[in-house]
Design a protein that fits this description.
Chain A is mainly α. Chain A has helices spanning 11-26, 47-59, 77-91, 96-107, 121-159, 171-183. Helix content of chain A is 58%, strand content 0%. In chain A, helix 2 (47-59) packs parallel to helix 4. Chain B is an alpha+beta fold. The chains are: A mainly alpha, B alpha+beta. At the A-B interface, helix 1, helix 5 and helix 6 of A face helix 14, helix 15, helix 16, helix 18 and strand 1 of B.
């Protein structure tokens, strides 16, 4: 009895399923993603090749159809073949950069895990950070100005005696009282 | 049944149209009759959407493959749980599910408030029903869930990757969050229309907002957990547009939850709060648009799905219409108080808001950047984790640090003495732990910085609890347990919030540890009986087995995990091949390390050994595996549970709520008069 012997049902269907399954499994697991560090247990790779492979594999995305995974992460047969190829090329003296360039030339700019830091992409790399930093600085300045204005207004009101002699219980005062009493409510 | 479902959907949309028209009229001309009619139409729309979604589920359960949606998302042998999940597994079903949840939210809201907020409710109802009309139109014209097709004998079935329990639960949570933000948005718009922009709408929507925020957060976490256990790459977050789509409204919703505290306490930030609620709602709609329009795959896909233009128009109306209303009402929205000092809780909350909104802006910019880039250069680009991490990590770090500062600083103005008192213990603890980590060899900057921030926040929360309990023990003579319990019970919102922060601390520990100190290795051509080792763990590959089931065939591999001679248990991985599905799916094995055998292993508590099958030859048993060790990763999931606990505490009613609401209402009535 073969490894795909049916548990029950028609032999034709089972054979078809077996063939399909066999094909898929032999295809090398296809889209089961493979994680980083794939070379850690590879005794043949030198440190230089290992570092070079990781540089390339972290930079580019696998084209097998997996959901936006780098070659380093992807565990399909395509990624395994690429790894073998790149290790061979690195061993023969090719640089990681040239392998990346060749890969991008073949599969398009979209195959990079992130856009290169040049041209319009600089806006994406640095624009948001600069914007948040500027907004943060402006906010701090605005808070400081508001605080100073508030302090001056309070001092002026106190000087004019506006805070004294409020008659009756204004709803607004009551609300503030409730709020501030709540602060002490342990 | 197809005709019945379509008719229900059409009638539901018409009921929503009438509910919107009648409610707006009722509010505008102050007609109780129109308002009541609108309310009844909401109930009718809710009932009809329920019948429509029930009909679609019935068609799925009864295997009616003559309906295109059923054919594409189910098959005869699909387990019942996944047949239920097939309801939201495809585009039309998920949009119908969205609309149904909104209709149920509206029914509950309208019923709950039938005797309250008589001025606001007609407009609230009108806004909610306008959203429902939009989804009704999309469902009737662009993606009809009841579209008839060829009468197939069996269906294609749901995507096998989605046939996972967490993935079935994840979308309902996400949608409860997305849709739930429509409620505070509707109240915000109604407040602007009626010029009742005080604290009443804020206090009324507090629980609704927490509810939506909570479910959106849980939905995001469940999605991450699904990715972790299903996709097999040993990660849980990849900054995919589908992930950022849900993350953005959650971030702005978080900012809103914090800034309403400032409005409630100081009657400031009225404009800001309205901006936040408008942004949160718009981002929720944008998130649905992003995932459903296909625009990020290519700008050319925008019109291809048919959904893009509809969503763009609706989003434009909702966003710019509400912002226009806000500008119109600016004179009513002046703050009645000013900031007293840079060193105050208000300032800390403002900075927290700035960071949350700033990070959201950055994520939004990076998410949509491929569109202008493609238009400009003619080439598509991919925005992967390197750019997102580079741009957002410094600000996340600042945000976590601020989480430790904000709650401890006094309202109005903090004195240097009080700051010293409050922060001395957390600062000392942070310095000690950071030095210890550094001495132990931790050098990765962000991991170390995030750990330091986590310790700081943890210290500030613990000291806050300790100070409160000590005060009760001193003033009320209570024992420690009673003082602690009553402290939390009497101020559930405040201390529930602290518990949520504690959950965030745990999540930070999990994310930093599993990202910075992850180890992995691939082992190729391993024969049964062979042994693999990584980071002190030993995995023995025992055997392989192939089985053909009814829904799929599988190759299962059995391994045994041990550490320092101690058997830790079996690890079983699989490749599955589903009928009519080209690629096999991978079932990983995960072993959470929870019981250390020695002091040296204590640091491993919460780490996972994660095993992925790569390839195998069923005949010879020769196989390849990848093994990951992910330190602290379970702290992330634990953080999620703590956030659930904290939210549960914070959402409970507080005894002061009624009198604060009455006081706010009195102030607002006076202002309107």
């Amino acid at each position: 009895m073969g490894p795909f012997a049916p548990a029950g049902g028609g032999a034709g269907a089972a054979a078809a399923l077996r063939a399909l399954f066999g094909l898929a499994v032999l295809a090398g697991g296809l889209c089961a993603p493979r994680p980083a560090g794939a070379l850690d247990a590879s005794p043949d790779a030198t440190d230089r090749i290992k570092a070079g492979y990781e540089k390339v594999a972290d930079e580019v995305l696998c084209y097998c159809g997996c959901a936006r995974q780098t070659v380093h992460e992807c565990s399909c047969s395509v990624a395994m073949d690429l790894r073998t190829d790149w290790e061979r090329r690195l061993a023969s003296g090719e640089t990681p950069e040239s392998i990346i360039d060749a890969y991008i030339a073949e599969h398009g700019e979209q195959s990079r895990n992130a856009p290169p830091r040049k041209g319009l992409n600089l806006v994406a790399w640095f624009g948001p950070g600069i914007a948040i930093a500027v907004a943060g600085t402006v906010t701090m300045v605005v808070i400081a100005v508001w605080a100073a204005r508030g302090r001056r207004a309070r001092e002026a009101a106190a000087a004019a005696g506006a805070l004294a002699g409020a008659a009756g219980v204004d709803p607004e005062v009551r609300q503030r009282l409730e709020r501030e009493l709540g602060e002490f409510d342990l | 049944m197809v005709g019945f479902g379509t008719t229900c959907l059409l009638l539901a949309t018409l009921a929503a149209v009438w509910a919107a028209v009648s409610s707006f009229l009722g509010g505008a001309v102050r007609s109780t009759g129109f308002a009541i009619s609108g309310r009844r139409a909401v109930y009718a729309a809710g009932l009809l959407f329920t019948i429509a979604i029930g009909t679609l589920e019935y068609l799925i359960l009864t295997n009616d493959f003559s309906v295109e949606y059923v054919f594409q998302n189910s098959h005869i042998t699909q387990p019942l749980f996944f047949k239920i999940g097939a309801l939201w597994g495809g585009q039309a079903g998920s949009l119908l599910f969205w609309a149904w949840i909104l209709s149920i939210y509206a029914v509950v809201l309208v019923f709950w408030n039938r005797h309250r907020h008589k001025e606001l409710m007609p407009f609230v109802t009108g806004v909610l029903m306008t959203t429902l009309v939009f989804f009704g139109i999309v469902l009737s014209i662009v993606t009809p869930p009841f579209r008839p097709g060829i009468a197939h004998a069996d269906g294609m079935g749901m995507n096998p990757l989605l046939q996972n329990y967490w993935m079935v639960i994840h979308p309902p949570c996400l949608y409860l969050g997305y849709v739930g933000f429509a409620v505070p948005f509707a109240f915000g718009v109604a407040a602007m229309i009626t010029r009742r922009t005080g604290e009443v709408w804020i206090r009324t929507t507090r629980r609704w907002t927490i509810f939506a925020w909570f479910f959106l957060g849980i939905g995001i976490l469940l999605g991450a957990y699904w990715a972790y256990i299903e996709l097999g790459w040993g990660g849980y977050w990849a900054w995919d547009p589908v992930e950022t789509a849900s993350f953005m409204p959650w971030l702005v919703g978080t900012a809103f939850l914090h800034s309403v505290l400032v409005q409630e306490q100081k009657r400031m930030l009225k404009v800001w709060n309205l901006v936040l609620v408008i942004l949160t709602y718009s981002l929720a709609i944008f998130g649905t648009f992003l995932t459903r329009s296909g625009i990020l795959q290519s700008v050319h896909a925008f019109a291809g799905t048919g959904l893009g233009p509809y969503f763009a128009v609706y989003l434009g109306i909702a966003l710019f219409g509400s912002l226009g209303l806000l500008i119109w009402r600016l004179p009513d929205l002046r703050s009645e108080h000013r900031l007293d000092s840079l060193l105050s809780r208000e300032s800390a909350f403002l900075l927290n808001n700035l960071l949350l909104v700033g990070i959201t802006g950055a994520v939004f910019f990076l998410t949509v950047f491929p569109i202008p880039s493609e238009l400009w250069t003619g080439k598509g680009i991919t925005m992967g984790p390197p750019i997102y991490n580079r741009v957002t990590l410094p600000w996340f770090l600042a945000l976590i640090f601020l989480t430790g500062i904000g709650p401890l600083v006094a309202w109005r103005k903090a004195s240097p003495g009080s700051l010293r008192r409050m922060f001395l213990a957390p600062t000392v603890a942070t310095a000690a732990v950071t030095l210890a980590l550094f001495a132990a060899g931790a050098r990765e900057f962000y991991a170390l910085a995030f750990y330091a921030s986590a310790v700081f926040v943890f210290g500030s929360i613990v000291s806050e609890f300790a100070r409160g309990a000590a005060a009760r023990m001193r003033t009320k003579g209570e024992g420690p347990a009673a003082a602690f319990g009553r402290l939390v019970w009497r101020s559930k919102r405040r201390y529930g919030g602290y518990v949520v922060h504690l959950g965030v601390v745990f999540a930070v520990i999990g994310i930093a540890g599993s990202s910075a100190y992850k180890k992995d290795a691939t082992f190729e051509d391993i024969r049964p009986g062979a042994v693999m080792t990584l980071d002190g763990y030993t995995l023995k590959y025992e055997r392989i087995e192939t089985v053909e089931g009814t829904a799929y065939a599988r190759v299962t591999q059995y391994l045994r995990l041990s550490r320092a001679g101690r058997d830790l248990g079996p690890m079983v991985v699989e490749k599955r091949i589903y009928k009519d599905v080209k690629n096999p799916t991978t079932e990983v094995a995960i072993f959470p390390f929870l019981r250390p055998a020695s002091l040296a292993e204590v640091r491993r508590i919460g780490e996972d050994v994660y095993l992925t099958p790569i390839s195998m030859d069923p005949e010879s048993g020769i196989a390849s595996f990848t093994v990951h060790v992910l330190p602290f990763v379970n702290w992330l999931w634990l953080g999620g549970l703590v956030v659930i606990l904290g939210t549960g505490i914070a959402i409970l009613p507080d005894r002061s709520e009624k009198r604060l609401m009455a006081a706010s209402r009195a102030v607002e009535e006076r202002a309107v008069a």
